[in-house]
Design brief:
With about 180 residues, the chain is of the alpha+beta class. The chain is built from 3 helices and 9 strands, in the order H-E-E-E-E-H-E-E-H-E-E-E. It has one domain (about 10-130, about 140-180): Electron Transport, Fmn-binding Protein, Chain A (Pnp Oxidase, Chain A, Roll). Strands 1, 2, 3, 4, 5, 6, 7, 8 and 9 form a 9-stranded antiparallel β-sheet that branches. It is elongated.
């Protein structure tokens, strides 16, 4: 947790990425679990996703999905979305505008699957039925013969940072070529 309020936009943006990198490896970090909003037709759709990697250099966040999930289809039709996260410890909210791609094969996916398959999370990608499918009972369905593992890369287009603070709320917006303070 940061002990004092940051006054420099440059340092603040770096602190956001530092916290995102921490969140990718610390299950207790408030930003580890994010809300992803996508579009399905003319309706917004939102769900929670787990941050798996944060890459400051290319400004990318990675999370995993079942390749048959609605969010994967939605990203294929409209690759832009929004990620929202809150950290109680920091009193910071981030809204990230992102452009997403989905990978289901290749060496990067294979190396990540090699790690995931050794964990309890592997079951999430081995279900015989697609996410959201109706089941005849609440019992866990049988496992599929092959995995349905996908890696979603979200390239950050802009960061909308808000701090809730007893001395006054603050907001800043960062894009590739601009940073500014904004009215909260």
């Amino acid at each position: 947790m940061l002990s004092s309020r940051i006054e420099s936009l440059h340092i603040l943006e770096a602190a956001c990425w530092q916290e995102l990198e921490k969140a990718a490896t610390d299950p207790a970090h408030g930003w580890r679990l994010m809300t992803l909003a996508t579009v399905q037709g003319d309706e917004a759709d939102a769900r929670s996703v787990v941050l798996r990697e944060a890459r400051r250099g290319p400004q990318e966040l990675l999370f995993y999905s079942d390749a048959r999930a609605a969010k994967v289809r939605q990203i294929g039709q409209q690759p832009k979305g929004t990620l929202v996260m809150w950290s109680k410890a920091l009193s910071w909210q981030l809204r990230l505008r992102v452009a997403m791609t989905v990978a289901t094969d290749g060496p990067d996916v294979a190396s990540r699957w090699a790690q995931v398959r050794l964990t309890r999370s592997a079951a999430d990608y081995l279900a015989g039925a697609a996410p959201g499918s109706e089941l005849p009972s609440p019992l866990v369905p049988e496992r599929a013969a092959r995995e349905h593992f996908a890696v979603i890369t979200a390239r950050v287009l802009s960061i909308d940072w808000t701090e809730l603070h007893v001395d006054g709320h603050r907001r800043a917006i960062f894009s590739a070529d601009h940073a500014t303070w904004a009215q909260p």
